Amino acid sequence: MTQRDDHDIAAVTFDHDDDTVVVIIGSGAGGGTLADELTAKGVNCVLLEAGPRIENSEFQNDEHWANDTLLWENAREGSGDRPTVGIPTWMVKAVGGCTIHWVSNSPRFQPHEFKTRTTYGAIGGANVLDWPLCYADMDPFYSRAEYKMGVAMTHGLPPMRPTNLSKIMIAGARRLGYTKVHAGRVAINQTPRDGRNACDEIGFCQQGCRSGAKWSTLYSEIPRAEATGRLELRTNCMALQIHHDAAGRASGVLYADKAGAQHFQKARIVCVACNTIQTTRLLLNSASARFPDGLANSSGALGRHYMTHTEGGVIGVFDRSVNWHRGRVGAGTVEDEAPNDPRRGFIGGYYMLAFFTGLPAYAGSLTPGAWGRSYAGWLERYAYTAGMYIVGEDLAQPGNRVTLHATKKDQYGLPIPCFVLNDHPNDMALRQHALKRATALWEAIGARRTREWLSIPNGHNLGTCRMSEKPADGVVNTWGRTHDLPNVFISDGSQFTSSAACNPTLTIVALAIRQAGYIAEAMRRNDI
Ligand SMILES: Cc1cc2nc3c(=O)[nH]c(=O)nc-3n(C[C@H](O)[C@H](O)[C@H](O)COP(=O)(O)OP(=O)(O)OC[C@H]3O[C@@H](n4cnc5c(N)ncnc54)[C@H](O)[C@@H]3O)c2cc1C
Ligand code: SF4
Known about the structure:
There is one protein chain. By secondary structure, this protein is of the alpha/beta class. It has one domain (22-524): 3-Layer(bba) Sandwich (FAD/NAD(P)-binding domain). The protein has 11 helices and 17 strands. Bound molecules: flavin-adenine dinucleotide (FAD) and iron/sulfur cluster. Flavin-adenine dinucleotide is lined by residues 25-31, 48-51, 90-93, 97-99, 101-105, 206, 238-239, 273-275, 278, 282, 330, 459-460, 492-493, 503-505, 508. Iron/sulfur cluster (SF4) binds at residues 188, 199-205, 209, 211, 213-214, 328.
């Protein structure tokens, strides 16, 4: 146990030569949960996080501050015809990862969404596959994830109190005949719970929740793991490569600290939770003579099947004020369109979710360069506006993928990531259906004007290291363990075999809890 000055001092430190530790890369939903679960089971962990630690007491109710301070701005390049491709992929570079920015909608997968190949059959242009697990396998871990996160309407927690926006959306939905409608299945405290305060309904949730009412690994899992004395969190430490030994086992992680100095941390096990694009990039950048196409890529599937959900939004403008920005985010959900019903002209389903944005982001969302009467008119009606976005199934397509740039490199001399995202015809049909229904919903409750807002990014990044029964079809097995390296695990949304219709984080957390149990038991048995 030593103290170092090459990165922020943690309560406990492990030597770089200590090859008994589990090294977790990324401290967001997947990595933060894994650290909590493993340390609770007596496992020593080193957690490498590329960003700084910014406590929630430092958060500011200011969109510009949040973007300038928290966003992941390392170079990336995107292409394709998905409407959101031009928007930078929304990621956080700080302890807690995207659980700082997230809205906290936390639905479960529907059972058939783990068995999409069986349910949907073969789909041209897509490569749909069943997960090597089923809903019954996940059920207990969903329940534990909901308890940890404090998800409304689970474990005896009441439904959320409606905001103005909730009331309008719920009323509109009922006029259309929808019945599975509520004020949000979100991970936000209404009363103090698990060391987190109650929601004060001031808003600015996506800029980081100052009160801690909204779940984040920043102030839940990570401090709890640190309190065990078994976690060393190294902030401002960017993992560059995973190395392996002659036997094909990961030996540790090369990383750069804040000053750019490089270190090698030995490891018994390496768990990668860098949020899909960076996870894929790290594995590709770890190519070696033995693994020339990247680590864990014997199938050629690494980087393929990148999914972000089919997204889009509709805003409605009303005669009377809505004040959509007052109160918390995640203020309304319609679940009726989530089931798979091919009679609608597409397979899979979608959720309709209330949203608002602050005035700066709203102004920026209007046609770039817009001005004059029309532009001013939309802005003047800001307080009279209501917003809804859709999250729908995004089919796994082999051509939608994350790769390394052929020439552009970062400050460490490593290629930057590129991604391609094209709509499948099914995505377009689903989006068109959803936008029509969202428009109808606002009109049903008296909207004067509506406007489609196609370029709403959802921050969901999934699928490039997908789970598969057979090693030839994917990158990891049912435990998130790579098919190729026995001691490398993937612990984020890149494990997803299908996107399902719903927001992904509850499933990421449930998978991390399940994976931690497997790892701890395998270590105990000396299997890893
Ligand atoms: C605005 C917004 C709203 C959202 N709303 C919802 C919602 O309502 N419901 C929902 O389910 N999901 C939502 N999401 C998505 C959700 O936040 C993500 O699914 C989830 O946080 C992903 O978890 P993760 O562990 O994969 O990655 P993250 O939580 O992003 O954590 C990844 C961490 O890895 C670090 N990292 C990356 N590369 C490296 C490296 N090489 N070395 C060291 N560290 C590295 C990053 O800095 C980051 O801290 C939202 C996202 C955004 C941006
Ligand atoms: S409104 Fe509630 S959830 Fe949102 S930032 Fe404030 S306290 Fe947190």
